[in-house]
């Protein structure tokens, strides 16, 4: 395990770079109250739309709130939505994928059809419609993102289990008298896990992006919450009048976190793929 | 051949229809169960309980949900998608009037993205591990990470505000320009067809920024997928055999291209559907006035019939796109014809 991690860090520099970017964001999120120079929702009425200067490093927005402080607090919303959403996806996706891959039957059929549905339908439209319809709260945003992404994990686990089902390992585990739940969770799950865990980073990137998009459209999180998508939404109208800092900086924060997550996830998948072909 | 071809078409439709129904059903139920109450919206704050009930009965909202869905479905089959509660217009007309406006943006964007992305991806696959390959990988990852709407805003800032090269992001044609006579609904094509050069020019100028934004976003996944597909084909045994037999590099490249085409094409189709949501956001930013912007606003306003129409449009578009792609694959790939 340690050796594998060491090889991952040594052989795939993109993982190190990606994880470093993500860790910086994580530190900002956790220690926001100590790092942020000002209160993120304190309006400085005399300093509305101030350009970046010595007092407001990244300028102020249309309410006269400090953009830098809002960015730092924004990291909390990005992680605060993406982490539980991906956890929900995993909690639903893992057991469904295990069972669908192992037993087939109607669960498998339902899973495949749901995947078809999500493949032929733009998920962002679905997310928007559902959040708008079911009530616009932070919790709903988390649940909708988690549910919409669960089939992705289920499919990955299913594919892994399907490949293992007929193996000698499963056969012998069965032969010495393992019960089905034990077979599933003790023998199959750990073997199916690596491919699934490699997905987490990429799916978190997706969750961060979707939650920001929802806020940008004005569904879910609203001003003056210091959330990046909502900040870009407020800044959109100032782009044609030249107050570029309002939308530019939250976008950069969003891009850097999503890029870091994607970079790390991509590297891990690449590395896993190479290890498999070597085996 | 024609009989198998028809059978193929029928099989495809048989698979598509349940999918469209499922999408419609899910959104219908979600929007009805959780949505804002349109009755309160329509009746106004001073209406009495009796008036509320009257409106409810008039809209058919007092019936069981499944019955409501059945009535809606019956209407859809006859081409009646209901009435938008905000504009009081028929949803079908609202969609029809905006169809080309949206398709113009989306299809140009994806077409340009594919024309750039596929060659770059295949080239990267042919030179795996090279600097070019690494650059393609980094660029496509970056493209994955940039939110479309933000990229559109940056494009506006740069090309409209700072450089003054692009027109204001407000609609599809300059307010000063003459509207060309409607033939297809696309200002550019109508202007060219009718010989109204000034209008066509203005329409083109308005198209460039949003189309390029969509193209950039479309390019990233297409590039990545083309690279993966190309790499797989290059490593396959028949290419290794061709190489071992001493075929020229140009012949081999043509073989790789031919054998990559089918999966690449299928992927581009998936992209068109995925970008439908993205292009809606671009429409919003550029005040484009197509189905996307209309759909997003309907979602925000809780306009049931319109949301339902938007979702139906998206589902039908994906069915049509996949059908076209299946047809193209059917023509390109004789091997798969036996399978459903």
Q: Uncertain spans of chain B, ≥5 residues at pLDDT below 50?
A: none
* Number of separate strands of chain B: 0
What is the 3D form of chain B?
globular
Rg of chain B: 24 Å
**Secondary-structure-derived class of chain B:** mainly alpha
Gyration radius of chain A, rounded: 22 Å
| Tally of separate helices of chain B | 13
Unreliable stretches covering 5 or more consecutive residues of chain A: none
State the secondary-structure class of chain A. Answer: mainly alpha
Biggest interface between protein chains, with counts per chain? A-B, 45 and 50 residues
- Structure annotation, total helices of chain A: 11
| Cα separation of the termini of chain B | 15 Å
Shape of chain A: elongated
Assess the beta-strand content of chain A as a share of residues: under 5%
Assembly annotation: heterodimer
Largest sheet of chain B: none
Q: Which sheet architecture does the biggest sheet of chain A show? A: none
Fraction of residues in H or I helices of chain A: over 70%
Descriptive tags:
heterodimer, A: 279 residues, mainly alpha, 76% helix, B: 340 residues, 13 helices
What does this structure look like?
Chain A is mainly alpha-helical and 279 residues long. Chain A is 76% helix and 0% strand. Chain A has eleven helices and no strands. The relative contact order of chain A is 0.16. The mean pLDDT of chain A is 85. Chain B has 340 residues and is mostly helical. Helices cover 76% and strands 0% of the residues of chain B. Chain B is built from 13 helices and no strands. In chain B, helix 1 (2-34) runs antiparallel to helix 13 (304-332). Chains A and B meet through helix 5, helix 6, helix 9, helix 10 and helix 11 of A and helix 1, helix 6, helix 7, helix 11 and helix 12 of B.
